[in-house]
Amino acid sequence: MSVSEYTAVVTGAASKRGIGRATAHALAAAGWNVAVLDLDEAAAKATADEIAGAHPVQAFGLACDVTDETSVATAVDTLTADAPPVGAVVNNAGITSPTRFLDVDGAEWDRIFAVNVRGAYNITRRLAPGMAERGFGRVVFLSSVSAERGGGVFGGVAYSAAKAAQLGFARALARELGPHGVTVNSVAPGLIDTDITGGALEGERKEALLSGIPVGRNGRVADVADLITYLCRPESGYITGATYDVNGGSHIH
């Protein structure tokens, strides 16, 4: 089979320096048609145009609020009508929060879970049945090193808890969908140079953070995107229910 027959959906993929955008490009370079879903419709369409201009694939840019079932349904319906069948879903859309637990309120807690957990549910629940029916699919969750080491990097307890929930979500889903040819894995990035972490990567703070990373540098979005693309290959069908760390050795466990 060829991935050119399928579309890979990447949520939250319009940020110029984000992991999602780099992943969309990497998947397109590997031959996938790509759907960029993002809250910012103009940025999603611009990203899709950029991808189509750089790679000989179809690319679609769609407005989508992953926390809203109606918005997700509209985006999926558009893809179903216009794009090749979905063969991969990358649950990249996410938000962080540094709020300490003793200060966090219920609204903030729910906001973090709405995007990171419910958002992943909304999009995966819509697309998993089609992949299972076709007998091929790849689902990748963007978790975080914070879920494994218990925060202590950027996100607070709400963020760590939500990213840990994704790990359990992925493992259980891997068991259920495996017999249908669908694999489900998680990637747990550490310190990656994106707009979210960029402000912290300056001066003494940067030196302190990098001192704990054996490879001696912060991660790049390509480091994560390349691994996600590997997990989405048809040849990676015997890898499922796994969590892959991309942290330069900062959390070896």
From TrEMBL:
Keyword terms of this UniProt record: Oxidoreductase
Alphabetized GO MF terms: oxidoreductase activity, acting on the CH-OH group of donors, NAD or NADP as acceptor
UniProt GO BP: fatty acid elongation
InterPro entries according to UniProt: KR_dom, NAD(P)-bd_dom_sf, SDR_fam
Alphabetical list of SMART domains matching this protein: PKS_KR
Domain of life: Bacteria
Limits of the Ketoreductase domain: 6-190
Family to which this protein belongs: Belongs to the short-chain dehydrogenases/reductases (SDR) family.
Protein name (record): Short-chain type dehydrogenase/reductase y4mP
Naturally occurring in which organism (per UniProt): Pseudonocardia halophobica
